[in-house]
Specification:
Helices cover 14% and strands 43% of the residues.
Length: 389
């Protein structure tokens, strides 16, 4: 009988890549796109192995893992679980370890062929209880294969040249937040931003709308002619204003710059939050070079599926990451229909309940649509107009 593998992953293209590789290797594959569906599939399919993403709409991967290990209705199944994620923080890996996973893999460090090799080896191991992980306290890491993978105590990282994703930049290769230290050389930056997915032409205004439980939110994003020097780099200021039913709620200045390779960097933001028409606070503000804050990449020059990178880094306050999950999305809006759009999945360990899917279309040259999911409640931000002022 074929080994049954359940892939729990919300990206269609990532699912297709792994499904093809595992099916070709002789495994029976099923798929769940969110946490609730995953729990249902575990009962229906009773998989031998689960490949589990952590950042999922609604119920998180860690919540799924906890239920599988602790709830009575799943105790007769107890599949092996490999976490396959871009969340490289020690806290996430430690929580996964506590629930007895067989491995913790970073998507950016393993190719489909490398993953198949690891699973083949895992399947050849003798059956054991599901509490094996790591190398502390006599516990066994089931995917320890010297010829294929190297092991940190909490994260399995591939060292085999055949299984490593070679497309990572210095931004995306940091395995932990404390490793993230981008080198910013002012002479390596240019004065304009012309990335096809993220163009900043002064005088351009993008208008968006979103319907929420509180009312109609409108957003105006204006590329200004104002510049600001940060870490020696001349950045372009972009002004964002948000209104809820015509009442101003936020007024933000964002700073971006493009390097010679075409990567667009995010250097910080100055935030004014309003309540009842009055300035309330500046929560969310940060600037690279101040109090340990570091710039991140908002758009890569040559994005590829599987890329993962910090978009901003201010420890404990702003740690957004982005994953590229598609390069061929179609977006249909009242404003127009667009193709070959880039889709990213944005998230932060500081707000695990919030996942954002953003669509950048070359025909627009900027953010075209954003789908948010907060605790399972979806909202969609749509572009309604582009004007030049």
């Amino acid at each position: 009988m074929k080994t049954k593998i359940l892939i729990v992953e919300d990206s269609d293209e990532v699912v297709e890549i792994y499904t093809t590789a595992l099916t070709n290797a002789g495994y029976a594959v099923d798929v769940a796109k969110n946490g609730v569906e995953a729990l249902s599939k575990v009962l229906a399919v009773q998989p031998d192995l689960i490949l589990l993403d952590l950042m999922l709409p609604g119920l998180s991967g860690l919540d799924v893992l906890q239920k599988i290990r602790n709830d009575k209705e799943y105790r007769h199944i107890q599949p092996k679980v490999i976490v396959l994620t871009n969340m490289a923080g020690m806290d996430f890996a430690e929580k996964a370890k506590q629930h007895g996973v067989s491995g913790y893999l970073l998507k950016s460090d393993v190719t489909p062929s490398g993953l198949v090799a690891m699973i083949n080896n895992l399947e050849s191991q003798p059956k054991t209880n599901q509490q094996g992980f790591g190398i502390h306290g006599g516990l066994i890491l089931l995917i320890l294969i010297a010829a294929i993978v190297g092991v940190g105590w909490y994260v399995v990282r591939s060292n085999d040249s055949s299984s490593v994703n070679k497309t990572d930049t210095s931004n995306s290769t940091a395995s932990r937040a404390e490793d993230y230290n981008p080198i910013i050389e002012p002479s390596n930056f240019v004065s304009s931003v012309d990335n096809k997915y993220f163009k900043l032409t002064p005088g351009t205004k993008y208008a968006y709308k979103i319907k929420t439980e509180e009312g109609l939110e409108t957003i105006e994003t204006v590329v200004t002619e104002v510049t600001k020097k940060i870490l020696g780099v001349t950045t372009i200021e972009v002004r964002d204003k948000s209104w809820l039913d015509d009442e101003l709620t936020e007024d933000t200045k964002d700073w971006y710059a493009q390097d010679k390779d075409g990567n667009v960097w995010y250097f910080g933001e100055a935030v004014d939050n309003y309540e009842d028409g009055k300035l309330a606070d500046h929560g969310g503000s940060w600037q690279a070079g101040i109090d340990g804050a570091k710039p991140g990449i908002i758009m890569k020059a040559d994005p590829r599926i599987g890329d993962s990178y910090y978009q901003e880094y201010y420890k404990g306050k702003a740690e957004d990451r982005g994953d590229v999950i598609s390069l061929s999305e179609k977006v249909s809006l009242t404003y127009g229909d667009f193709k070959d759009c880039l889709e990213t999945k944005d998230y932060s360990r500081l707000e695990p309940a919030l996942i954002e899917y953003k669509y950048y279309c070359p025909e627009v040259g900027f953010l075209t649509q954003e789908k948010e999911n907060v605790d399972g409640n979806p909202h969609t931000i749509e572009l309604v107009s582009v004007t030049h002022i």
